[in-house]
Amino acid sequence: MRPTDNGDRPRRLPAGTNTRHPAGIRIVAAALAVAALVLGPLGYANGLSADTDSASEWYTLGFAASAGLPLLAAAITTVAGDRRAALWCLALLAWPPVFITALHLAPGA
Questions:
Q1: Structural domains of the chain, count
Q2: Phi and psi torsions of 91, nearest 5°
Q3: What gap in Å lies between CA 29 and CA 90, rounded to an integer?
Q4: Which of 62, 67, 85, 107 has its CA 20 to 30 A from that of 42?
Q5: pLDDT surpassing 90 at residue 11
Q6: Residue 16 lies in a domain
Q7: CB 39 within 8 A of CB 65
Q8: Is 3 within the bounds of a domain?
Q9: pLDDT band, residue 53 (cuts 50/70/90)
């Protein structure tokens, strides 16, 4: 009989032990990262080319994708106990200044 079946407190695992599915967590984080890398510039580029009535909506969608999705992925990986994946997700927050600068410096912009 396990101690938890007998009413004892569950044993604490050593620090750094990930009891969740690390491959599944990293797949979710990678899917969110790809969405942020694609949808952020797409929304911002559509905002640049949109008329004044819908430009703010495209900018909002581009910002939500490029900043919100990496923060969501970092939160998910942090809760799962995967620090390395969380740091990579936070590193994606450097992507918006890169694509905004590239879009404004592109010829014909």
A1: 1
A2: -65, -25
A3: 11
A4: 85
A5: no
A6: no
A7: yes
A8: no
A9: confident
- The sign of the dihedral angle between the CA atoms of 22, 26, 27, 29 is positive
- Cβ atoms < 10 Å from Cβ of 3: 10
Question: Does the residue 44 lie in any domain?
Answer: yes
Q: Provide the whole-model pTM.
A: 0.76
4: pLDDT strictly greater than 90: no
For the chain, give the percent of residues with pLDDT over 70: 80
Structure tokens at 79: 């809760």
Q: Which domain holds residue 51?
A: 23-105
Side chain identity at residue 109, one-letter code:
A
Q: Is 21 left (phi over 0), alpha (psi -120 to 50) or beta?
A: beta
Residue 42's CB is within 10 A of a number of other CB atoms, namely 16
- Per DSSP, the residues of 46-108 read HHHHS-TTTHHHHHHHHHIIIIIHHHHHHHHHHHHT-HHHHHHHHHGGGHHHHHHHHHHHSTT
Tracing tokens 């599915």 back to the chain, one arrives at 21
